[in-house]
Amino acid sequence: MSARQTGDKDLMTGRFANIIVDISHEKVDRPFQYRIPDTLLGKLEVGMAVMIPFGLGNKRIKGYVMEITDQAQYAEEKLKMVDSVVEGGISAQGDSLRLAWWIRENYGSTMIAALKTVLPVKRKVKQVVKKTIVRKVGADAAAAKAAEFEAKHQGAKARLMQELAAQPALPQLLVTGKLHISSQTIQSLCKADLIEVKAEETYRSALPQTLSGADGWKRKEKRQLSENQGKIVDSILADFRAGVYRTYLLHGVTGSGKTEVYMELIQQVIAEGRQAIVLIPEIALTYQTLVRFYQRFGDRVSVMNSRLSAGERSDQYERAARGDIDIMIGPRSALFTPFVRLGLVIMDEEHEGSYKSEGMPKYHAREVAGELCRMKGASLVLGSATPSIESYYRAVKGEIRMFVLRERLAGGQLPRVYVEDLRSELKSGNRSIFSRRLQGLIGDRLKKGEQTMLFINRRGYAGFVSCRACGHVMKCPHCDVSLSEHADRSRRISRLVCHYCGYEVPGVTGCPACGSKYILGFRAGTQQIEELLHREFPAARVLRMDADTTRSKDSYEQILSQFAGGEADILVGTQMIVKGHDFARVTLVGILAADMSLHAGDYRAGERTFQLLTQAAGRAGRGVLPGEVVIQTYQPEHYAVVHAADQDYEGFYREEISYRELMMYPPVAHMMAVLVLSEEEQAGAGRAGKLVEQTKQQFADRRPVVVGPTEASIGKINDVYRFVFYIKHREYQVLTDIRDALEQTIHAMRWNADSVQFDFDPMNSY
Ligand code: ADP
Ligand code: ZN
Ligand code: ZN
After folding, report:
1. Which one of 289, 455, 463, 719 has the fewest beta carbons within 10 angstroms of its own beta carbon?
2. Enclosing domain of residue 147
3. Nearest bound ligand to CA 470?
4. 502 and 565 within one domain
5. Do 686 and 755 share a structural domain?
6. Which ligand places an atom closest to the C-alpha of 262?
7. Are 50 and 86 a contacting pair, CB within 8 Å?
8. 398: CA distance to ligand 1 center in Å?
9. 377: domain CATH number?
10. Are residues 492 and 443 in the same domain?
């Protein structure tokens, strides 16, 4: 364990340890006090993992030391004794503990769940031992010995000494493998004092094979920054050097040079002896991105991602704690890299939904990053082409400072965008998935040998119902979100349900607005589109990317590189294709059903749609050839579609924020979802109702807005029934107060801690 911070030091002398046990349950969600045995006095540290006797049977379980003190809470002789320190257990640093408390307080979970979140690596995995065979004599002597062995017909010894005459050391694996030299031979040469075997513990590399090879990457010098980039870097660094640690929003389209700004900031921060964490959504963490960082910073960089083995992860964690690296790149969990001198956190594509954890605790990495930076004294830089409404709102209010990068640097202009109204396509008799404009342009690209990407927007698809003739969408009158179709399979009667408040109407057979019979969901999938393409453009070579075709390892990268290599004319895919690679020959992007994500049935639908459309459109015209984009929609007048077509973020923001203001949705107010789980339907409904009643009575003077309870949109998972209600209030604190009050009830009623889950400012509806 590395050097402790002062402050914790004085605590280490105590005779008692307050310990959180490794059980996630309300009843044990508090520290328990233990006596420290003489053998461990002065050896325990805050954050250490220990074994302790627990419960009636004194079973040995794991726990984490929260505090060491001389203050006994009970009569000393009644306290049980700490058993031992967990061998190879990872200790939490003081900062991690504080961060865990903060997460527990802000999102509601047990302390142990919060602790496990900030300790992404649970235990050390033994390091790999690498053995090298080194000669103990000079090159000439080795050559002479080789000749000697040769003369005595000792072929193996001769071969090894010959190799060692050429180079002073060889990996043992090479010697026993490729050179076919037995360990007896090695031993006998060791005895003759001609060679020795050196063992060295090495860290597993987290780099892709091609990078970690000795000459897999070439170091690149930095670029000359543009004037605008330079100014941004200077302002942030001026704050940093003055000890002012703030949050910044870097708003710039893809290709406007944000990554160059990040790298320059990192370099300067490292020069000051500090360290940096770079957060990237897992799906965008591509080989290309890594290469750029390695080219600039070499092996001072490491990476965390879900594909690493436990050993690889543990090693990266260890290297960071020891200060062997300066930069950690990775998704959400990379935030918990144990850097001692953290100076900078970068969060690229900060609007991405994957930064919110959907497990327990349901934390948002952006907010946790903010708290981490406050604790550590570090700057936080958020970057995006389409900032989250939350961040932009804070920038408008002046809480965070915003910088804008407007132009693409590597050439390429913004594409020309067409919005095609599918209602009028239907009117003129075109029932195909492709509008006439899109068909024409695809044909044109095939003729020219240029590439096309077709994107089907299936994100958040939740069975919304809209009219194909007039575009009318069935909405909840109370919540202003789309109603979702729930089909009752046994009776084949469908209902339309609001996921927030439970409002319900029977399924409709005709459009309430225009009377048309074409009122239904848009249900085309990627496979269907692929088939249609084959029919309409028999000569076209088509690749498809979706959950089906990317199941095997590396298939995602494979499809993208096939397409980049020109092995296909058209790539059809879900939102997976919007990220990552740059394709210079893509000059046409078709967005087949822009509406899909508009009707996900939650208040973020407009924001998500705008982001997806803007990103998808940005895929066209990345090279020298100009690009065109076709957005197909039933709602060409929807503000998310209109502003995405114009690539006008500010315009979109103005309309979106007034909607949130009107409906009291985040970030204008805060919203807490409370999910109640139970194996018995009655009991679940009863509990949800009870918690709602308590909220309304106990907090009447704070006037929270309570919506529900209702059955969740997925009412049952694995035989567990799910009920949900929402509470809105302008002050976050009121929501955490309500949460605390509800937790007391949960505790008093002895319900399982995990049976009620809290989600603050949720990303989805339940
Ligand atoms: P973003 O992160 O906003 O997508 P990048 O930093 O990746 O933008 O920059 C886009 C392209 O422009 C890259 O190829 C990058 O090398 C290049 N680039 C960035 N800054 C400069 C600069 N100052 N001069 C020349 N090229 C630049
Ligand atoms: Zn209609
Ligand atoms: Zn509603």
Report:
1. 719
2. 128-202
3. 2
4. no
5. yes
6. 1
7. yes
8. 28
9. 3.40.50.300
10. no
Question: Is the model's pLDDT at 339 over the cut of 80?
Answer: yes
Q: What is the pLDDT of residues 119-144, one digit of tens each?
A: 866 666 666 677 888 999 999 999 99
Interval between CA 256 and ligand 1 midpoint (Å): 6
Most ligand 1 atoms within 8 A of CB, residue of 231, 253, 260, 382 to mutate: 260
* pLDDT tens digits for range 445-467: 999 999 999 988 665 444 667 78
The domain total for the chain is 6
Lowest-confidence segment of 5-9, 147-151, 276-280, 594-598 by average pLDDT: 5-9
Q: Please check whether residues 507 and 546 belong to one and the same domain.
A: no
User: Distance of CA 585 to CAs 543, 581, 640, Å?
Assistant: 15, 12, 28
Is 169 in the same domain as 316? no
pLDDT at 26: 65
Among protein residues, the one with the nearest Cα to ligand 1's atom 27 is 409
Q: Give CA torsion, residues 304, 309, 310, 311, to 10 deg.
A: -100
Å from CA of 323 to ligand 1 middle: 29
Q: Which residue has the tokens 């060692």?
A: 164
- Mutation to probe ligand 1, out of 256, 266, 286, 409 (largest number of atoms < 8 A from CB): 409
Confirm if 587 and 445 have CB atoms less than 8 A apart: yes
Strands 169-171 and 128-135: antiparallel
Peptide bond into 666 cis (omega under 30): no
For residue 693, what is the domain's CATH number?
A: 3.30.70.600
Q: Which amino acid, one-letter code, is at 36?
A: I
Calculate Rg over the CA atoms of the chain: 30
Q: Ligand 1 pocket: which residues have CB below 6 Å?
A: 223-226, 229, 252, 254-260, 409-410
Where a domain ends, among 356, 377, 405? 405
| Residues 253, 361 share a domain | yes
- Of ligand 1's atoms, which has the minimum distance to the CA of residue 229? 23
**Distance from residue 507's CA to the centre of ligand 2 (Å):** 15
Nearest to 85 by CA among 126, 135, 36: 36
Query: How many angstroms separate the CA atoms of 373 and 246, rounded?
Result: 8
SS3 442: helix
Q: Which atom of ligand 1 is nearest to the CA of 263?
A: 6
Domain end point (choices 74, 90, 106): 90
* Sequence letter at residue 257: G
User: Does residue 381 share a domain with residue 240?
Assistant: yes
